[in-house]
Amino acid sequence: MATYASRYPRLARKLMRVCGLEVDGTAEDFYLVGRDHIPFVRLTPVAAGGRTHDKGTGRSRAST
Questions:
Q1: What is the mean pLDDT of residues 25-51?
Q2: Residue 44 covered by a domain
Q3: Model-wide pTM > 0.85
Q4: Cα dist. 21→28, 30, 36, 52 in Å?
Q5: CA distance 3 to 27
Q6: Boundaries of domain holding 27
Q7: Residues 6+ apart with CB under 8 A from 1
Q8: Is residue 53 part of a domain?
Q9: Residue 17: which of 5, 7, 3 has the closest Cα?
């Protein structure tokens, strides 16, 4: 969240208000709010065959 806030400070503050969270505007505060209150997920595109590459194991696996 801190990286997003540094790129888009006004939108980040508005997002916090919409989420019902208060921040003081510092990078540390945005970091803490992101770590403690906002669940982030990583989206990985899946190839047309429905298989994806698992970077952790180095193997291909079927998507679920």
A1: 87
A2: no
A3: no
A4: 15, 10, 11, 36
A5: 8
A6: 2-37
A7: 12, 30, 31, 33, 34, 35, 38, 40
A8: no
A9: 5
